[in-house]
Q: What sequence folds into this?
């Protein structure tokens, strides 16, 4: 029982990341009609916001290790610790939280620059060209990050106070065997909050209502004198912020490296397709569904029956869903259809 | 009696005499072992003033940083072979035939390629080096699958491949090739070196759970470590294969929590090692008590470059490594000095093994007095040397595996600098890690490609 509940938690956690990335992809596709293959790179840039801030906060006073003579080796003490003592240590400890604050404006800017600087020129071009240009952009962004930070993953720790595991079993009277890392629980909760905020924005604000109207019928909204393009540009920025936040929050779980966006991108596209192109609830539901299925397929008991199932489950389920429901779980007629 | 009846003309006698004279001239080389082949090998430099090496390393992809360090080492080796710089390990290597004027008087040049850590890309890149650039030898590493693919190509093409970082038993086991040589240690040796240290540190009654990268290196490492730990009396609770580059290992780690195991063995390397170790620590495994003992994690193959990615999570975790820059022997010091002066930081174990391989090949050519692969191979087979950083070493003729000291290390609890990540716990002597080459099977194949 504990094993099953742990895999449910794993699945929800993983699904949270898939859902956040897929949500941004769907938003961009639903509003601007662009298939954005650079969205994974945006997730990666979000993670590197945390890495950059960590590097800045840990700029250090270097004390030479004199036992090393053939090159310069240093014991490093961050200036923040030297100047502010425990306060400095605490700031460094809370780098992921501080990075969230940094990532919101940075990612909004990244999104706006991407949309205004490149992607808007491809709105009326075929999807194949959009895919090529955004994929190319993703590779360029990856290489820029690699040239600055190298190819190796860079560790970013969660705050010390949430570094251990929570006794989840005790909360529900299930004993002590069900423990789960605090940070992963926080990640799951944050994913749900961000998803809730995006839906609330679209559902309960006038701005969101106009965006939804534009997604339904762009031309009519335009005829009402509303500059829908401008709003869609903001939505692109918002999608970048969502992916960026997912990236920042994921850094303590997966030490970021330049390729992490590409690792998530393919799965996130499967999530979007399974959820139904252009369907926001579909993307979120498919994200969590596929995350949970992937976790269950990795259980030893399942792998003993079908070896290798953990590596193909997502694609297998995608094929079955698309055979049964060609537009995905919640896809609408007319989207990406001619 | 026709022959006696035949008339012998002056022309016939001259023809016969010329043929005999020709045969006499050729005979010394024809009847010498491989004498004929020696003149007809691929990419024979002939009278050219230089020869070319090919350095095929991962320049993109997950191992790009390790590949970059390997390339630095190769460039340094070429410099030293050509008599430039401070000479590095040429000052300490014994016996040394190189004279500091290239190889057999020919200057060494090089070309580079990108394996992308993919077997097909590595083979394509190596083939280009051999066919287009005319390399006399190629070398590189970071993945056993890639190494085995390149070694196989070396045998097909008749060009020697000096393996860089590859740790699978198969490289010099079932997939060994006459044209492939490995200086780096292997999974069997890791197990043999770790065993006594694990027994001392963790006792004889342990239950181990393996998470293993699902490819040749992972399989052979799991097998070797399992044999070692079961030899100590440990039980193996489970062995789970994980896909290469899984990223999030949570679904593989959570079953460990309630499996009854008190040791987790991570047969992962590179990014997989960083991720699985980081996540295992996050799941509280290191703070856990199981069966009345502290839960332990073991990483059988360590790399300093990878250890940087895992941050403080590596502290106190045991593993093995081929070489570490902190060693104090003359060879290691000479290499660290050269590399440090050139690049400003210490070399990795990958850099060390690649540098040594380049030097060993060059030295073998000098010993053989030719670049002809069969002769160079024979010079390397059974070659015994010292002063290269791991004590007295031998290139075993039977499987082309180097035998030397192996280092058992653990993540440093109190590093004195940013490079001081691994603490050498023990230098395990060669005799403890040696094995019968027949246990892994395989055939080296012919000298003539």
A:
């Amino acid at each position: 029982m504990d094993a099953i509940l742990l895999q449910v938690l794993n699945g929800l956690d993983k699904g949270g990341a898939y859902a956040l990335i897929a949500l941004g992809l769907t938003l961009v596709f639903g509003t601007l009609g662009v298939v954005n293959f650079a969205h994974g790179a945006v997730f990666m840039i979000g993670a590197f916001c945390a890495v950059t801030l960590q590097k800045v906060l840990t700029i250090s006073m270097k004390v030479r290790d004199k036992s090393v003579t053939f090159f310069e080796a240093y014991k490093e003490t961050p200036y923040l610790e030297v100047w502010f003592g425990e306060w400095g240590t605490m700031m460094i400890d809370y780098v992921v939280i501080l990075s969230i604050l940094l990532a919101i404006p940075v990612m909004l800017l990244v999104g706006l620059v991407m949309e205004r600087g490149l992607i808007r020129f491809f709105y009326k071009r075929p999807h194949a060209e959009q895919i090529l240009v955004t994929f190319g952009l993703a590779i360029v962004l990856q290489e820029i990050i690699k040239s600055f930070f190298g190819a190796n993953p860079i560790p970013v720790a969660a705050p010390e106070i949430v570094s251990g595991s929570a006794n989840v079993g005790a909360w529900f009277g299930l004993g002590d065997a069900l423990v789960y890392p605090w940070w992963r629980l926080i990640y799951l909760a944050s994913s749900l909050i961000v998803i809730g905020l995006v839906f609330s924005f679209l559902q309960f604000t006038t701005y969101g209502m106009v965006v939804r109207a534009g997604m339904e019928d762009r031309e009519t909204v335009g005829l009402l004198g509303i500059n829908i393009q401008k709003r869609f540009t903001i939505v692109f920025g918002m999608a970048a912020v969502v992916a960026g936040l997912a990236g920042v929050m994921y850094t303590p779980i997966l030490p970021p490296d330049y390729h992490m966006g590409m690792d998530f991108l393919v799965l996130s596209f499967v999530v979007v397709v399974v959820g139904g192109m252009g369907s926001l609830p579909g993307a979120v539901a498919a994200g969590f569904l596929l995350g949970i299925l992937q976790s269950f397929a990795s259980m030893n008991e399942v792998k003993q029956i079908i070896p290798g199932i953990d590596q193909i489950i997502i694609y297998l389920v995608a094929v079955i869903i698309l055979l049964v429901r060609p537009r995905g779980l919640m896809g609408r007629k007319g989207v990406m259809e001619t | 009696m026709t022959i006696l009846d035949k008339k012998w003309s002056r022309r016939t006698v001259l023809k016969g005499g010329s043929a005999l004279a020709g045969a006499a001239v050729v005979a010394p080389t024809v009847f010498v072992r491989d004498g004929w082949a020696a003149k007809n090998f691929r990419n024979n430099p002939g009278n050219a003033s230089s020869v070319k090496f090919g350095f095929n390393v991962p320049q993109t992809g997950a191992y790009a940083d390790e590949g970059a360090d390997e390339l630095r080492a190769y460039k340094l080796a070429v410099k030293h072979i050509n008599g430039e710089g401070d000479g590095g390990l040429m000052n300490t290597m014994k016996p040394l035939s190189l004279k500091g004027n290239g190889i057999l008087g020919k200057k060494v040049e090089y070309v580079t390629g990108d394996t992308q850590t993919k077997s097909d890309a590595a083979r394509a890149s190596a083939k280009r080096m051999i066919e287009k650039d005319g390399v006399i030898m190629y070398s590189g590493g970071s993945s056993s699958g890639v190494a085995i693919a390149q070694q196989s190509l070396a045998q097909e093409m008749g060009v020697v491949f000096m393996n860089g970082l590859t740790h699978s038993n198969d490289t010099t086991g079932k997939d060994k090739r006459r044209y492939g040589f490995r200086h780096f240690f292997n999974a069997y040796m890791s197990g043999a070196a770790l065993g006594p240290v694990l027994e001392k540190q963790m006792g004889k009654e342990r239950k181990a759970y393996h998470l293993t990268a699902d490819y040749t290196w992972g399989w052979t490492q799991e097998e070797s470590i399992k044999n070692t730990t079961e030899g100590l009396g440990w039980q193996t609770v489970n062995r789970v294969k994980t896909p290469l580059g899984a990223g999030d290992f949570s679904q593989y780690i959570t079953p460990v929590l309630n499996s009854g195991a008190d040791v987790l063995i991570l047969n992962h390397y590179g990014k997989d090692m960083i991720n699985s170790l980081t996540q295992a620590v996050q799941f509280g495994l290191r703070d856990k008590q199981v069966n009345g003992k502290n839960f332990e994690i073991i990483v059988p193959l360590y790399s300093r470059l990878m250890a940087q990615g895992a941050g403080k999570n590596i502290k106190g975790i045991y593993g093995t490594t081929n070489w570490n820059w902190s060693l104090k022997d003359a060879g290691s010091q000479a290499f660290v000095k050269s590399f440090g002066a050139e690049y400003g930081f210490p070399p990795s174990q990958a850099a060390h093994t690649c540098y040594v391989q380049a030097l060993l090949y060059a030295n073998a050519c000098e010993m053989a007095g030719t670049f002809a692969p069969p002769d160079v191979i024979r010079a390397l087979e059974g070659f015994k040397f010292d002063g290269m950083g791991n004590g007295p070493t031998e290139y075993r003729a039977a499987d082309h595996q180097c035998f030397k000291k192996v280092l058992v290390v653990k993540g440093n609890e109190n590093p004195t600098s940013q490079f001081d990540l691994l603490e050498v716990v023990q230098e395990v002597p060669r005799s403890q890690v040696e094995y019968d080459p027949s246990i892994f099977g395989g055939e080296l194949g012919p000298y003539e490609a």
Notes: Chain A has a mean pLDDT of 89.
